[in-house]
């Protein structure tokens, strides 16, 4: 009997194995104010189910889905640099959500909407198929201990879920500062049906100009740490 899970089994496993740790954290006054004032304007709820994002944003535009935006610095920078694009950003860490909301309010940006829950549930339940131009996964938890590798978000079922939500020609862009996780990402995505690696070498790409460099990343570069970017395009 085969040990390889069927797609349905893979989806069930992804529903039960969490790729993140819920961290409430302490909110600063600014973050709490951002949450109080910004959530009614920018927040979306999983319970609202499948969305028409043209109606949500009030326009048709290229649309990016970001999984785990941390404190929101990169999201804010990308949204400010590309006002003609829309961003659906998901994060479970409340201080990060508050920080991004505060930034959106202070910069008067209107091209970002936020979910504060499991990004995979949002993809499954709220995002129409073939509707996204990009999915971003920047510096996810590497779960570096062998016994925790099953918690890594990049798995075959994840690749298939993202493929369903991307338009043909849409791109999954991943970045990590853990070489072993980069190798894992490359291994999973290289055999995932319906994708093409945009790297001419069949491995990694140079850091794209549209991905902001974080303070953490710049510090790592000074210390000689590497960062690996991967882009896989949906081809069918």
UniProtKB/TrEMBL annotation:
Pfam families: Methyltransf_4 (PF02390). Pathway: tRNA modification; N(7)-methylguanine-tRNA biosynthesis. GO terms for molecular function: tRNA (guanine(46)-N7)-methyltransferase activity. GO terms for cellular component: tRNA methyltransferase complex. The keyword Nucleotidyltransferase does not apply. S-adenosyl-L-methionine binds at residues 66, 91, 118, 141. It is an enzyme of class 2 (transferase). Its EC number is 2.1.1.33. Keywords: Methyltransferase, S-adenosyl-L-methionine, Transferase, tRNA processing. It catalyses: guanosine(46) in tRNA + S-adenosyl-L-methionine = N(7)-methylguanosine(46) in tRNA + S-adenosyl-L-homocysteine. The keyword Nuclease does not apply. Substrate binds at residues 145, 177, 214-217. Catalyzes the formation of N(7)-methylguanine at position 46 (m7G46) in tRNA. Belongs to the class I-like SAM-binding methyltransferase superfamily. TrmB family. This is tRNA (guanine-N(7)-)-methyltransferase.
């Amino acid at each position: 009997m085969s040990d390889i899970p069927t797609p349905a089994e893979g989806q069930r496993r992804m529903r039960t194995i969490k790729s993140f740790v819920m961290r409430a954290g302490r909110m600063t006054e600014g973050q709490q104010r951002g949450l109080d004032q910004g959530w009614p304007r920018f927040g979306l709820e999983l319970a609202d189910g499948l969305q028409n994002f043209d109606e949500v944003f009030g326009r048709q535009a290229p649309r990016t889905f970001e999984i785990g935006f941390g404190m929101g610095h990169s999201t804010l920078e990308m949204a400010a640099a590309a006002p003609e694009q829309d961003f659906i950003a998901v994060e479970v860490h409340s201080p990060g959500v508050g920080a991004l909301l505060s930034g959106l309010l202070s910069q008067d940006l209107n091209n970002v909407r936020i979910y504060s829950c499991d990004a995979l549930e949002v993809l499954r339940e709220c995002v129409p198929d073939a509707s996204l131009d990009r999915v971003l996964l920047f510096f996810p938890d590497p779960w570096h201990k062998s016994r925790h590798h099953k918690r890594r978000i990049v798995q075959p079922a994840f690749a298939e879920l993202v493929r369903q939500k991307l338009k043909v020609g849409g791109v999954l862009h991943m970045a990590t500062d853990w070489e072993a996780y980069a190798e894992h990402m490359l291994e999973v995505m290289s055999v995932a049906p319906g994708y093409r690696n945009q790297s001419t070498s069949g491995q990694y790409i140079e850091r794209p100009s549209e991905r902001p460099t974080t303070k953490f990343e710049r510090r790592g570069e000074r210390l000689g740490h590497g960062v690996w970017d991967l882009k896989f395009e949906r081809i069918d």
